[in-house]
Amino acid sequence: MTIDERLDRLTERHEALTQTVELITADIRNLTALMSQTDQFINQLAHIAAAHEQRIENLEEGHQ
Fold first, then answer.
1. How many helices (H) and strands (E) does the chain have?
2. What is the rounded distance in angstroms from the CA atom of residue 33 to the CA atom of residue 25?
3. What share of the chain is helix, strand, coil (3-state, %, to 5)?
4. pLDDT per residue rounded down to tens, the chain (64 residues)
């Protein structure tokens, strides 16, 4: 294998690795955004659960 052939292979590998890193970076950005949305959703559910728990406690206290 000549030096030119080796350089061509290295260039191809470098380009492939660059594309892979770009794809992984985009995936990480998307996952980060999804995790942020999921965190917000979980917090909303926690607030709803706390409000329902308070209502149940108030109802139980009213029946005693």
1. 1, 0
2. 12
3. 95, 0, 5
4. 899 999 999 999 999 999 999 999 999 999 999 999 999 999 999 999 999 999 999 998 887 6
The span from the CA of 64 to the CA of 57, in Å, is: 11
Q: Token pair of 8, please?
A: 């061509």
Q: How far is CA 64 from CA 53, 54, 55, 59, in A?
A: 17, 16, 15, 9
**pTM for this model (two decimals):** 0.64
Residue 2: phi and psi, rounded to 5, are: -80, 170
Distances, alpha carbon 62 to alpha carbons 35, 53, 58, in Å: 40, 14, 6
